[in-house]
From TrEMBL:
It comes from Mastacembelus armatus (zig-zag eel). This is Nucleoside diphosphate kinase B. PROSITE patterns: NDPK_LIKE (PS51374), THIOREDOXIN_1 (PS00194), THIOREDOXIN_2 (PS51352). The keyword Metal-binding applies. GO terms for biological process: CTP biosynthetic process; GTP biosynthetic process; UTP biosynthetic process. Its main location: other.
Amino acid sequence: MAGKKKEASLQASVTNQEQWEEMLATKGLTVVDVYQQWCGPCRAVVSLLRKIKNELGDDLLHFATAETDSIDALEKYRGKCEPTFLFYGSGELVAVLRGANAPLLQRMIVEELAKEKLVLEQGGERRAVKDDGLVDDEKKEVEEVPQQNEENLIVPASKSYTVAIIKPDAVAHGKANEIIMKIQDAGFEILAHEERTLAEAEGREFYQHKATEACFEDLIQFMSSGPSHVLILSQAEGSANVVPAWREFIGPADIEEARREKPESLRAQYGTQTLFNAVHGSEDSDQASRELAFFFPNFRTASVTEQDGEEEHVERTLALIRPDVARENREEILAQIHKSGFTVALQREVMLSEEQVRQFYFQHTEEDYFPALLRSMTSGPVLALALARAGAVHHWKNILGPSDINKAKEESPDCLRAKFAVDNEPINQLHGSASHEEAEREINYFFPKQQTLAVIKPDAMEEHRENILEEIRGSGFCVTQLKEMVLSRQMAEEFYKEHREKPFFSQLVEFMCRGPCMMLVLTKENAVEEWRAMMGPTDPDQAKATSSSSLRARFASDILHNSVHGSSNEQHAEEKIRFIFSDISSDTEPKTDSKTERTISATEQDSSTDKENTEMSRSLTEETSDNHHQHQEGDHLTPYSPQTE
């Protein structure tokens, strides 16, 4: 009985219109749990409310429950069972929270109470809101925005687009409609609009690039706490790049910075702190495309072909620039590619062996021209490109022209194959996929999804860790696994056992035991090669001279303290990942030190292991520094034969 009295005194019970009007006359902040008679109020939050009341001890804070069935003002809440909390500041609705999200409820109570006290004590402006569940206003223009329930959403290919999210905090505060109208007033066009609540698993997938950040779990909990509004935005004129325009409009992610630098931005107006910053925007066009595919898988752009007016999907095709032309004319060809409306989605140089050329062109090995093709494809690095645009396969084939050089010169002298033909060479110098299906197979051949092991070493952990992690995410890597650990001396010796006889071995081991390392599994197309390129040469001096933007050029102090490590090849990466992130250890592994998370016994299989050189600048090499990201033999490629050449 005592417990029931406490509970009744904690939350005033409002069961009719007269009591409702009396409650609205209460001075201070009143948090009302709106419920229907058949399901009752939200008992799950009672202990939380009591805790908040006891901790704050503020006479201006009140709690109430309100039965919708008998209160005319709450008529539109009838027939709904979702927990709903209305925040009233001295009788005016100032915020709304749907869903029993305890952390968010507590945070909103504290914030709204502080705002109300500021109004009462200093005469500040109270920002009242409207909630669709309480008013009979005409339907907002926002309802005219197309919902994503059509089988396909088709948008002209000329439009630039980005993904915008009105986050749960802004929705809970009843600000979604207000924000949407401001978006439209600012000249943005809403191509699609969907209200949805992210499941926790969806949140983890969407924000996987932030998995290493300290706030990751709070972010996932927050983003799955209630409904968000997801929009595809463009600009009415269609020609401008909407991504930077939208990011300028929403302002910096840090709320204090937004209020200081961009007071008119959405985040400055509606955000409360960095995590609860009201709105989201894609960082660049590539991220916009990924987010678009995540939320709106049926979204596609449309263009009209000259022949039949049929719509074409945005797609990818493979382009190969063969060695003779890649050496002399690559920049000119790349400029022509960009001018033709293509985006270079993936790019790499690869040195192919004869066996790999025979595998790739299996169906052409008996042709008269194959010896010339083999000679051409192995004479130097091939530049492989994944090109993206609407109708990519068709358009790239048109730009290339006929595969026969003589025919190309006669029938289409302005095509790329005619323009970049090599004298006395019967083989054309550029390749294009023949079909959509072939394009994807060929792209997967040259750009397979890979995993690599990355290590942030002790010298970089304290000062440069966040910068390195930010650059990893910004470069499109997905951090699929992460582990922070301190190596014992025994573990470090095992880790670098191939250097055991080298004079610097003890120094290296002591350095690696000095503090925590961060072990990461990075996933991306061409992950091994791209991570090695990001790191730069092992020797920081060489990195500064040849790769000034690399991590080691900027963050490493010397060849021992060189900030980061990466696997030298795909096999090496697989072995180390399997060992470091496996829960199963073999009997031959050293015992785990009590101060460490687990033992490492994977061997560094570096390209420098076979070199007999006692100088640290050569023997300590973790990657082959003289061509660490230039031209690697594509030993990961698997047999595949395109249908046509």
